[in-house]
Amino acid sequence: MLADNFSMTGGLDTLFAAMVTFVGGHFLLSSAAVRGPLVRRFGEKPFLAGYSVVVIILFVWLLLAFRDAPTENLWEPNSVLAWIPAFVMPVALFFAVCGLTTPSPTMAGSDALTEGRDPTSGIMRITRHPFLNGVALWAAAHLLANGDTASVILFGGLFVLATGGMWHIDKKKEAQHAGAWGPVLLTTSAVPFVALAQKRTSFDWAGIGLWRVVVTAVIYLALVWAHPAVLGAAAWPGMFFNIWVFI
C-alpha cells in the first residue's frame, strides 16, 4: 500500500524523503566505514566518480521534488526578506567559485598537504571551507526569503549539510593527516574571517586573484537573468529588475 501511494515528486513527504536521502547519502558515503573499503576496492578516482554520479542523481530528484511540492507558508514573505538573497548571493557565489578553483586540503581527493604548495593560500585565509560556506549562505538567505514549508525543508537541509559537512571534514582530515593538520587549523577558520580577525593569518589577495571576482560577477548576473524563467520569480524584487530583464 505504501509503495502504491509513494511518488518520486509531488508532496512534502517525498521532498523530505529526497532531502534525507541526499544529506544522509553525503555523510554515509564520506564516512570512514563506507568510504575506506570502497576506495580500497575500486580506487580513489573511481570512487569519487561514482560518488559524484550518485550525488547528481539525488540532487536532481531533490530539485524535482521541490518544484512539485505544495506551497504552505510558515511566515509571510516581505520586501525586506526578499532582498536578502540579492545581497548575500554574490558573497555565496564568490566563496563557491574560489572553493571550486583553489586547491586546498579540504577538497575531496586533494593532496594539497603533501604537494609542497602552501595549503592555506588565497581563499583559505578567509575560510578553509569556502564552497560549503557558499552553500550555507545560499541556503540561509533563500530560507529566510521564502518562508514556506518546502523551502524550509530544502534550504534547511542544505544548510545542515553544509555546516555539518565542515565539522565532518575537519574530523576526517585530523584523523587522516594527524600532526600535519594542526597548522591548517591554527591558521584558518571554518567561519569566514575569524582567523583574519584573530590575526592568526593575513589576507592573500594575490592567491585569490581578480579573475575569480570577474567569474563570480558573470555567473551572478547570468543567474539573475535566468532566475525568472527557471524558477518563476525575480532574483531582484522591484521595477528595476523587471525592466532590466526585458532589455
Major sheet size, sense and barrel closure: none
Q: What is the total domain count? A: 2
Q: Give average pLDDT, whole number.
A: 85
Specify the number of helices: 13
Number of strand segments? 0
Name the helix and strand elements from N-terminus to C-terminus, one letter apiece: HHHHHHHHHHHHH
Helix content estimate: 55-70%
Shape: globular
Distance between the termini: 53 Å
* β-strand amount: under 5%
Write a brief caption for the model.
This protein has helices at residues 2-5, 12-30, 32-42, 44-68, 79-82, 84-101, 130-146, 149-177, 182-187, 194-197, 205-208, 210-231, 239-246. By secondary structure, it is mainly α.
Tell me about this structure.
This protein is mostly helical. The protein has 2 domains: 70 residues; 174 residues, no CATH class. The protein has 13 helices and no strands. Helix 2 runs antiparallel to helix 4 and helix 3 packs across helix 4. The C terminus is likely disordered.
